[in-house]
Specification:
Helix 3 packs antiparallel against helix 9 and helix 6 crosses helix 7. It contains twelve helices and no strands. It is globular. It is an all-alpha fold and about 220 residues long. The structure holds iron/sulfur cluster (SF4). The site of iron/sulfur cluster (SF4) has 14 residues, from helix 10.
Length: about 220
């Protein structure tokens, strides 16, 4: 049951206005530029783990420039994919996952990205974060919350949740946040996390949601 004591609507409305002054996160940018195409959202999200946005964006564009479909990308040699996506973090593992995912898309899903959590989780390298973002950005789902390190950190600082892992945060957010905010939580908190509520030295003095923030764990 959504709680009425947390100022989640106030925070979300304020962030919705404030993020207009900031650049979109890389995956959102790629999704917009590529008409929310599920394959592009899936692959760029796979590349994005623990990687700076600018690096993710450039690597995704290099890869799509050479292979733009599951069939074409699955036919690339792992070494070729590694070269195209370098220097994203864990580029060797990610290259293997990208290739294996493309082949599975062709073999099991007719070359299409599946539109359910259950099926997305069968793809190599795809966890709940990636699956949720694909469902939100490519399939316009309003029923999912995508939790990455920014969402996990800020939700805890705001006192919305008290959790140790992003997976716990996702489940806790379903309980405390009204459904109408679910799909926007990632965009709003990631943008805020990259620009204001940074992991180290958050800019609390310049934060438009500071009046609602107990700054849990912030020194
Ligand atoms: S007040 Fe500080 S800790 Fe709270 S959301 Fe803003 S930047 Fe983050």
């Amino acid at each position: 049951m959504p709680t009425r004591t947390l100022p989640i609507p106030q925070v979300m409305r304020a962030l919705g206005r404030a993020i207009e002054d900031h650049e979109l996160p890389a995956i959102e940018k790629i999704a917009e530029a590529r008409q929310h195409h599920a394959f592009h959202v899936l692959i760029s999200t796979l590349l994005s783990a623990r990687t700076q946005d600018a690096t993710t964006h450039a690597a995704s564009e290099r890869l799509f420039g050479v292979a733009d479909t599951p069939t074409a990308m699955g036919a690339l040699a792992p070494r070729q994919i590694e070269k195209l996506i370098y220097p994203v973090s864990f580029y060797r593992n990610k290259a293997r996952h990208v290739r294996a995912t493309c082949r599975l898309l062709v073999d099991r899903f007719g070359g299409q990205v599946p539109a359910t959590m259950e099926k997305l989780l069968t793809l190599p390298g795809v966890g709940r974060k990636t699956a949720n973002l694909v469902l939100i950005l490519a399939f316009a789902s309003r029923d999912n919350i995508c939790v990455d390190t920014h969402v996990h950190r800020i939700s805890n600082r705001l006192g919305w949740v008290k959790t140790r892992t992003p997976e716990q945060t996702e489940q806790a957010l379903y309980r405390v946040a009204d459904r109408r905010w679910w799909a926007d939580i990632n965009l709003y908190l990631v943008t805020w996390g990259q620009n204001v509520c940074r992991p180290i030295r958050p800019r609390c003095a310049a934060c438009v949601i500071s009046r609602w923030c107990p700054r849990v764990g912030v020194r």
